[in-house]
Structure formats: structure tokens, C-alpha cells
TrEMBL record:
Main location: membrane
Cellular location(s): Cell membrane
Topology of the protein relative to the lipid bilayer: Multi-pass membrane protein
Protein known as: FtsX-like permease family protein
Domain ABC3 transporter permease C-terminal: 295-408
Residues in MacB-like periplasmic core domain copies: 25-253
Gene Ontology cellular-component annotations: plasma membrane
Short name of any one Pfam family annotated for the protein: MacB_PCD
Domain of life where this protein originates: Bacteria
Keyword terms of this UniProt record: Cell membrane, Membrane, Transmembrane, Transmembrane helix
Amino acid sequence: MMIFRLIGESFRFAWDALRQNKLRTALSLLGITIGIFIIIAVSTGVDTMRDKIQSSVDKLGSNTLFVQKWPWVFNDNFPWWKYVNRPEPSLRDYNGLKDRMDMAVGVCYEVNASNRTIKYASNSVDGANINAASHEYSKTWDLEFQDGRYFTASESQYGSPVCILGAEIAEGLFDNSNPIGKQIKVMGRRVTVIGVYKKEGEDMMGMSQDKNVLIPLNLAKGIFDVNSERYNPQVTVRGKENIALEEVESELKGLMRSIHRLKPGEEDDFSLNKTTMLSNQLDIMFGVVDIAGLIIGGFSVLVGGFGIANIMFVSVKERTNIIGIQKSLGAKNYFILLQFVLEAVALCLMGGLLGLGLVYILTLVFTYAVDVEIILYFKNILSGIGWSVAIGLIAGFWPAFAASRLDPVEAIRS
């Protein structure tokens, strides 16, 4: 109880000192406010962007592998001349993997024809993506429907003229009417709508089903060459939940080498892409941005810290006589030390809270005025408060220590 009473008294002394010197207090806060604002604003922006991009990456599936011609990640020494001569993933690869993969929930062959026009009666939608996929598409991707259903096995097998629409395509063609059972024109063919995806909205990486149209792969074979590089063929493999991705990748790599008849020691002529590759690159990129924000804000905080320390030395000088009286009345050294340290911490906390307030206002401006959602996370608030307390303790300790060591007689006579 004595400790709490001493802290309370020290805080009251500190608060009185700050209140009596309003202009000096305001000027001292400025450096800390700007520093905390920069550090927390950068952290908030980076964390928000990281989470949005990561949620986009997570849509690809944490246990999913993509057999493609080109790797997703490469460095400055990227040997593009080797990759350009690689074969595209083919139906032969898909059939070989589908029959032999033991660790996969589903193996799917996909092709994409981008920027196409879809028509219904007098209505049309431009910029649609036509996806054609084998029946396992529903096993390798998480699909949500707002209307209708997925293809049946027989519709996929016999290439029935059916399709599933993205929400934006459905709205553009049918307004508010029900599209199920209606016939639309896709790449010159009439197909019947059997389902509509749930509306997702476009994410940070531009991935969304909203502007996609899915048709069975066997239907697409009669419309265009599904093995052509022009349509970006890929084989998507989703591993079983109870099996590590590394084991699925090892099995997939071995089977692909066997299908392509590659000799031991011979380089792979395919890429196995996975979401962890993107996540690692994102961590590196955002880590650099975090450090840059920390350095810029750190300089401002450093200047603010020196300002606080200088003000505290001035405060000690002004109150030397009062310190002498307090010590002569029995005040211990730690009471004087605590008094000035708390004053410095209170100053920095006020500056930090002002900086956090500015960041919060900035998030509201971006969210409601610019329509870009920025989130001030609780960990960023704690970080701002932590920085403020740390700066206050560091900047205030030496002046406080000097005050606590004053001789009471000399202090009273000053």
C-alpha cells in the first residue's frame, strides 16, 4: 500500500508540473507524437495489407500444389532460357497423376480463356474469364454457391453444355431475375446455367470467382485446344488433410518425373508451386517496409526523446529548492526519482496517445472517404503505448537520477 501511495503522490507532483507549463509540455509532445504516428501508421498499413494479401493467398489452399511451366518465385539469376523450352502441363500428365496419386484428395486439370464476352438475349458482359476444368475442380477448390449446383459426374464426363456463373456475370446478364435454367452464349456455344457462385468481391491479388464462368473440360475440348499454352493449362493437386504438404509434394514430384521419363540427375521440366512460396516472399517484402518505417519513426522518436530529457533537466533545475524541502522532510531518493520518471513517462504517453489518435483518424479517412479499409490492430495500439513508456523511462531516468542525488541543504539554498 505504501508503494502505491508513493506512486500516486509522485504522479500528482508530475501532473502539477506538466499542467503549470502547458506550452513547454505541448512542444515536448510534438516529437514523440510524430515519431509514434509514423511507426504505428506504417505498421498498421503493412499489417492490413499483409493480412489482406495473405487471405487472398490462403484461397489457393495451404495443402494445394500447382503443376505449371513457370515457377511463381525467382531471383535475379533466373534462367528463363531453360524454362521457356519446358512443356506445358498436359492431359497426359493429368491422367497419369489422377490414376496414381495416393496422397491427394483430388487432381484437377484446368485451362483459362481470359477477357471474353458472354451474351444472353440483348445483354452482354465483357472481360469474363472462361474456366474449363475436369470434374475434380470441386475437390481442389472451395466453392460456395448462392444459387444452383455443381456439375454431375455424367455432365463432366460427356461434356454437357452447362456452366456455372460468377455473381458479377449473373448480375450483368440477368439483373435480378433467376439465371438457373437459362441459356447463354459462351465462345459461340449455347450453354445452360446450372449454378451461380456466391459473391466474393475482388481481393488484393485480384482473385475472385465473380467474373468467372466455369464449363466442363470435355465441353471445352470441342471449342478450343485445351493443351495449348495460350490457355494457361495447369494441374492442381490437393493433398489429404492428415498428410504433410512435403510428403504430397515428394510423391507428386516423383510421379511427374516418371510420367516425363526423366533420368536420375536430370533437371525437372516442370514447376511445383505452392502458397508458402508466396507467403515467404510477402514476409520478406513487408519486413523491409517495417524496418524502413521503424528507422524513419525512430529518428523522430530519438529527437523527441532528447527533447523530453532536456525538458526534464530544466524541470529539475527549476524545482531544486522544492526537492531540497521534500528531502529535508524525509522524502527518500526513490520517491524523487519516481516523481521525475513518472513525469517523463506521462509526457511520452500523452504524445503516444496523440499519435495513436492521429493514426485512428487516418484509418477512418481511408475507410470511409477513400473506400480502402485500413484496420488499427490492438497489437499496434499496445506497440505505440510500449514505445511511449520505453522512451519516457529512458529519457527521464538520468534527469530523475540527478534530482534524487541532490544534497538537501545545497538544494534548499539554491
